[in-house]
Amino acid sequence: MLVVSLQILQREKIMQSDNLAPIVLFVYNRLWHTQQTVEALQKNELASESELFIYADGAKSEKANEQVSQVRDHIKTIDGFKKITIIERDKNWGLADSIIDGVTKIVNEYGDVIVLEDDIVTSPYFLRFMNSALEFYKDEEKVWHISGWNYPIEFTTDNEVYLYRVMNCWGWATWVENWNHFEKNTGKLINEFSKKDIRAFNLDGRNNLWIQVLLNKYKKINTWAVYWYASIFKQQGLCVNPIQSFVRNIGHDGSGVHCSDDSYVDNVVLNTNNHMQFVTNIEEDCAIVAQVKLYFKKQHKHIVVRIINKLTRLTIGKNLIK
Fold first, then answer.
1. Up-side HSE of residue 123: CA atoms within 13 Å toward CB?
2. How far apart are CA 175 and CA 138, in angstroms?
3. Could you give the CA distance from residue 11 to residue 164 in angstroms, rounded to a whole number?
4. Where in the sequence is the domain holding 222, given as residue range(s)?
5. Do residues 115 and 24 lie in contact, with contact meaning Cβ atoms separated by under 8 Å?
6. 268: pLDDT confidence band, cut at 50, 70 and 90?
7. Measuring CA to CA, which residue among 128, 135, 100 is closest to residue 24?
8. pTM of the model
9. Is 60 exceeded by the pLDDT of residue 271?
10. CA angle, corner 303, sides to 213 and 125, nearest 5?
11. Which residue, 146, 224, 235, 237, has fewest beta-carbon neighbours within 10 Å?
12. SS3 of 146, please?
């Protein structure tokens, strides 16, 4: 009952508030994906009360100029938000650097932030969930990150959210106090992590996320998310995840920089619950973690592993990961 009562008060506060977390959207050259992402976001019930910042990266080649221009023309027609600010990069930053810079600037100004990329379709209640979770857990030192996505698992639980060590970045949110710990220093990270740390980082050996750090080290990929996860992990932080996803990733069609053609995420049924109940026990949910581990065990190759293995084969060969 305590959780329900807090939820009711919290929802009323959010509906009346002029201080909803700003939304930061990163786009590049995928017009159709951007359109789908924006159209879904416009249908969110809190969209008209929310500020939207759109970072449009510059073209990395002459070939990409036309597609980049199409996206930039489109985002200038967007409406349905309290305020829209467009930041057009005058050169190609790349997704990782653009996200790090954009998130840092906005979260430092506003105190919290909701982040999306151009291939994330949201539920109409995504913004409500994110803002509610940001408000509910804002004073919990162990909670560092809110995720809008969750694995396509038939979870056995009565809860609507759970806490978990691993960070998912398909629609997420955080606070400035936590983001200030973000650091992308590959050499330092590798020196700090023991074999025991790496095993725990890889969900006790069930999922190889550490390979992304190594691929960044050898400059075969340039990503940001694994470093945010590492920053959370080093501080023993936890991430809030909905049992049922509020987002669907439509980018696994080969159109993205680090995306493959994995189609299972397209079958995610979006959460339409507009009054989520949050857990007050601020600990990793061992029962849920066991189910996630089982999911990875049943998967021949999880989506992240397939992507990274594909990149590895194409770029540095099999010897790198031995």
1. 21
2. 8
3. 24
4. 2-321
5. yes
6. confident
7. 100
8. 0.87
9. yes
10. 100
11. 235
12. strand
Residue with tokens 């938000």: 81
Number of domains the chain is built from:
1
Strand partners, 212: none
For residue 4, give the H/E element and its range: helix 2-16
Burial of 22 (0-12, 13-18, 19+ CB in 10 A): buried
**pLDDT score of 299:** 79
- The token pair at 91 is 């050169």
The string of DSSP codes covering 159-177 is -SEEEESS---SSEEEEHH
Between 75 and 18, the higher pLDDT residue: 75
Q: Give the tokens for residue 70.
A: 């199409």
Residue 277 has pLDDT above 70, yes or no: yes
**Phi and psi of 248, rounded to 5°?**
-130, 130
Q: What is the DSSP string of 68-120?
A: HHHHHHHHTT--SSSEEEEEE-SS---HHHHHHHHHHHHHHHHSEEEEEETTE
**Taking the alpha carbons of 213, 214, 219, 220 in that order, is the dihedral positive or negative?**
negative
Beta-carbon contacts of residue 97 (< 8 Å; ≥ 6 apart): 222, 224
pLDDT tens for 91-132 read 999 999 999 999 999 999 999 999 999 999 999 999 999 999
Tokens 């990782």 belong to which residue? 96
Q: Provide the CATH number for the domain around residue 227.
A: 3.90.550.10
